[in-house]
Give the backbone structure.
Amino acid sequence: LSRRVRAGAVVTTLIAVTVAGTLAYRAAASGAEPAAGASIFYTGEQRGYLEPCGCSKPQIGGLARRATFLKKTPSEVAQLQIDNGDLVDTVGRQNELKSEALAEFFKETGYAAVNLGEKDFMLGFGYLRYLQSVSQVPMLSGNTVRGDAKKPVFEAYVVRSLKVGDEETPVALIGLMSPKFEAEIAQWNPGLKVRPPTEVLTELQPQIQAEAKLAVLLFHGGLQEAKELAKAHPWLTAVVTAHEAEDYRARAETVGSTILVNAGQKGKYLGRMDLKRGAEGKVEVAHRFPIDMEHTIADDPEVRAILNRYLSHVGDEDLLAKLPKHKTTNGQSYAGTQACLTCHAKPHATWQKSAHAQAWETLVEVKHDKDPDCVGCHVVGLEHESGFRSMAQTPNLVDVGCESCHGPQSEHIKNPVKLKPPKVGAAACANCHIPEHSPSFDFEAFWKKIAH
Ligand code: HEC
Ligand code: HEC
Ligand code: HEC
Ligand code: HEC
């Protein structure tokens, strides 16, 4: 193989890339399942979104659905799963717990390799090594090095066998990082540097081609850089890119016979390439339309259990109580929704019947009532010193209460006429009814439902 490739011809991989329009391809694809084929599923840039929040329905995404999908692939179809990094998107204890849940997920669903992204390095090199031992799934970063060393701090590649047609086919899974992220990585890991990926690929080529027939590069960098790498290294079968957009890129880009693919962010879609043995035993690789992780896919029970364990860790460590608290802008403190009842019986009755009065129960039902990612928008004043702390400490500040919109009113209740709350209007909704959590929000229509 290596001789053939060195001669410049990429004869081992005949690429069947779809250039058809989105819908046309979808229709065509559904009837064209390979009978005894092989697939490589790729994901990346989970960014801490382990499951959809459920604030609007239906929403796509979620690890428990992905697991169901990966596990149900017919057994006669061989498959590999790979991830392109950015498991989380920032620092902090909750992100460590999220990355641990992801590590368990990768193990449970049999991922072959995870390439690290620059955001993962925010967790710190030592922690990442620990994470790798938890998941037992190889973590790659073949051009991240200490100082002037050449040896990377994580592996550069692994080789996994994939049965394509009747033949076991060794596939090299390579993981590299864009040098654009060097400063960001060094900020959290002083001394780490990112070597030029093309240099590393040149060094690895002979070794990889001696061990594998196909080479898939997980490149944690953008499309333009990836294209340059593909141009300089035509022996690459496929390149998975990162940092493109939240939604998938519908079509594969091609450079020579290398395909470049991307399945978006936050785990909404599952990317897929199909491989089959064509004429004369050549492996053909086809880009397939990324798959929506939609609500019709049931949760996998094992992964659901991993997510529940993650949520109980968040609760046990009481991360909610550890959030920073600030002073309120009007200098008053929160009185609680019950404190308004005596003088404002009518608005209170309207509120009582509204969805806002159920917001806490909603979180309890889905087991996210101790989750700092959720509680802020489902209670009163979480970010303030006198605001919500816990159901036990501040029972009058659960739910979206009067003061979620009117602001803290401890002085108004003592001196109602002199200290009147200011008008709030549509701006009162803006912090919570953001597009991500309330995509259909329209002030006129929503206000009608809660007018008082
Ligand atoms: C930025 C604010 C915000 C955050 C953060 C937030 N929510 Fe919500 N949530 C909302 C809003 C607003 C609605 C109502 C959306 C609508 O009807 O348009 C909602 C609705 C919901 C509903 C649907 C209630 C029903 O009866 O249909 C669920 C379930 C929910 N949220 C759970 C969560 C969970 C779980 C999290 C954390 C993972 C979370 N929310 C984080 C603002 C938020
Ligand atoms: C002791 C009685 C009393 C309590 C308790 C009370 N209010 Fe009031 N509130 C009043 C009175 C009286 C007015 C009308 C003042 C006026 O129009 O001169 C008023 C007016 C308001 C207004 C309208 C301001 C305007 O533009 O006219 C809002 C909003 C309001 N209260 C919110 C609250 C909230 C929220 C609470 C609970 C934290 C609360 N109030 C508790 C007596 C009370
Ligand atoms: C502190 C966060 C917060 C603020 C501020 C807020 N909401 Fe909400 N809203 C929610 C949450 C959370 C829900 C979902 C509650 C549930 O069902 O559990 C919701 C639900 C609703 C619903 C019910 C949606 C449905 O589909 O029936 C309406 C209507 C609504 N909000 C209107 C408003 C309006 C209008 C404003 C501004 C005047 C506003 N909200 C301000 C958090 C907020
Ligand atoms: C989802 C946000 C929201 C919640 C929750 C809410 N209000 Fe209001 N409220 C408003 C808005 C918006 C107005 C319109 C006037 C304004 O802009 O202040 C208003 C108006 C009022 C007024 C003035 C009505 C008038 O005749 O001018 C009072 C009094 C009041 N609210 C009390 C309450 C009380 C008491 C509660 C809790 C039981 C409550 N509100 C809950 C958003 C809210």
Observations:
- The radius of gyration is 26 Å.
